[in-house]
Design a protein that fits this description.
The protein is of the alpha/beta class and 329 residues long. The protein is built from twelve helices and ten strands. It has a seven-stranded mixed beta sheet, sandwiched between helices. The N and C termini lie far apart (55 Å).
């Protein structure tokens, strides 16, 4: 048989280990709760200002009820028309569902550490050419510490920053070096790698954040960011029901144009953008919830293959971006 997938990158995706049984049900429940709590932060369309470039020129992109996203006609960033300062830390300090989230995290911790963490490290080395003995890494928004735990096992110098209290507690129980401080508090030129796994989309002031990133990185340092891609196959199928929408949390959805704008304004250049997602799995999670049928088990063997095809077309619902520092600000 011919190798139909020669040149494709096929990931070992196990839907049952990557997503809990009630994943999509919980996504919707959390979304509705957050929608009610922060509805007052939604602004009139006339008040829109792009959080990346400051332009007021926009076009409507997507809406979930009264929660509307606009595409900036200057830099291409897609963002909601909300008052991010009014949300502040209140969203991340909400521990109402902390017990459930902790249970889900711990249930998949070993799988994510053994599957995702080594792949992330190998990708970093592949894209930057750094050796493990020379890496000085800061994992910003480190979450429960899957990646840091793996780096610790490999004796790679690393530290994490995290703002959510219960996630910090999980990290520290694992003996990980994690602090609740801001990137702005880090010393200049301390690291040669910053990792942002599902962090870029949360930044309400991306230019200020990347100016700090520039400062704490040494000459030629790298930022590796994983972020959702709203211009994707999953969003075409699911629309505003796509689980990575995360109203009020995900405030900036990037594309090549907006990423290049961000890099140019803060002393970086975009070295590479690649697309690897979970479009098929996310769609099947939604359909399993809608139809009360276990599509994830039924189609488990075809999920990795179909996803590889979508990835190859650069339309997956996640992107991987490598920024390189080219001059100090």
């Amino acid at each position: 048989m011919r190798d139909l997938f020669k040149g494709y990158r096929i990931f070992n995706i196990d839907p049952k280990k990557s997503r809990s049984k009630d994943f999509y049900k919980n996504v919707l429940a959390d979304r509705e709760r957050v929608m009610k709590k922060f509805a007052h932060t939604i602004q009139k369309p006339s008040a829109f200002v792009c959080l990346l470039c400051g332009s007021k020129k926009k076009k409507s992109f997507l809406a979930y009820g009264k929660y509307e996203l606009f595409e900036c006609l200057r830099c291409g960033l897609v963002s909601p028309n909300i008052s991010t300062s009014a949300i502040n830390r209140a969203l991340y300090d909400d521990t109402r569902n902390a017990e459930r989230i902790i249970k889900e995290i711990l249930a998949s911790y070993r799988y994510r550490k053994e599957t995702h963490a080594p792949e992330r490290l190998n990708y970093l080395i592949e894209k930057t050419g750094l050796s493990t003995k020379n890496i000085r890494l800061l994992d910003v928004g480190c979450g429960p510490g899957y990646f840091l735990s793996y780096l610790k096992d490999k004796k790679i110098r690393s530290k994490g920053l995290e703002i959510t209290d219960f996630l910090i507690k999980i990290c520290r129980k694992q003996g990980l070096k994690v602090e609740a401080t801001a990137l702005a508090d880090e010393k200049s030129e301390t690291y040669n790698v910053l990792t942002l796994f599902d962090v870029l989309e949360h930044l309400g002031e991306p230019l200020a954040f990347f100016m700090d990133a520039n400062r704490v990185l040494g000459k030629g340092g790298y930022v590796m960011a994983y972020a959702p891609n709203i211009h994707s196959f999953a969003y075409r199928l699911q629309g505003a029901r796509q689980n990575t929408l995360y109203p009020f949390e995900h405030v900036g959805f990037y594309d090549e144009q907006s990423l290049n704008y961000l890099a140019k304004e803060t002393g970086f250049q975009v070295e590479s953008i690649e697309y690897y997602g979970l479009d098929v799995m996310d769609y099947l999670c939604m359909k399993s919830y809608d139809d009360d049928y276990d599509y994830l088990t039924k189609f488990a063997e075809v999920v990795p293959l179909l996803q590889a095809v979508i990835d190859k077309q650069n339309i997956s619902n996640h992107m991987r971006v490598i920024f390189k520092k080219v001059f100090s600000m």
